[in-house]
Amino acid sequence: TIITAPVSGVVTKVSIKAGEFTPTGAAVTMMGDSPYRIEMFVSEIDVPKIVTAQSGSVTLDAFRRTPFALRVAEIDAGATDTDGVPKYKVKLDFLTVPEGLRIGMTGDASIITGERNDVLSVPRRAILDSTTSTGSVVRVLKNGTVEERLVVMGMEGGNGDAEVMSGLEEGETVFVLQK
């Protein structure tokens, strides 16, 4: 039997041995000549923020101190069930291929969905749903007492902080947890 690849590339795994009639899975695995790519699954809450051509980066476990630039190449239109949760596969291409990169390496990737400078932010844990109106509130210490303040929220950061667009002033004391 002759197996011909539909694209050019490198064979990375052969799962069938001489004399076997039918493999239990793929007989041959190969990597095409297309660029190296990261595939990650994104929650349905975050996927609307992602569009093709957005920038990102990955820090691979094998290269712990070096982030590598990425660009969003594809976003699956349909969800994939991952451990009972619908997630969307996002494919990111390397802008330059790192020396020593190997298929199957793992790491932490991030996508820049927006950027703001000089903003007022609070820990996401400090933001509560309002019980009296629609919107969000934070608890602020004012003249020795705690008051709930209605705030307008902006972007959320990947570090657990969220932007406060109005309703809070710089220097005010915000409660993150009240016992």
Give the SSE layout.
Layout: E1 9-14, E2 28-32, E3 37-43, E4 55-60, E5 67-75, E6 80-82, E7 85-94, E8 107-111, E9 121-123, E10 128-129, E11 136-142, E12 145-156, E13 161-166, E14 173-175
Antiparallel strand pairs: 1-2, 3-7, 4-5, 4-8, 5-7, 6-7, 9-13, 10-11, 11-12, 11-14, 12-13
Largest sheet: 6 strands, antiparallel
Task: Pick out the low-confidence regions.
Answer: none
Number of strands: 14
Secondary-structure class: mainly beta
Residue share in β-strands: over 45%
Q: How would you describe this protein?
A:
It is a single chain. The chain is mostly beta strands. It contains no helices and 14 strands. The chain has strands at residues 9-14, 28-32, 37-43, 55-60, 67-75, 80-82, 85-94, 107-111, 121-123, 128-129, 136-142, 145-156, 161-166, 173-175.
List keywords for this structure.
six-stranded antiparallel β-sheet, 14 strands, 47% strand, 179 residues, mainly beta
Summarize the structure.
The chain has 179 residues and is an all-beta fold. Helix content is 0%, strand content 47%. It contains no helices and 14 strands.
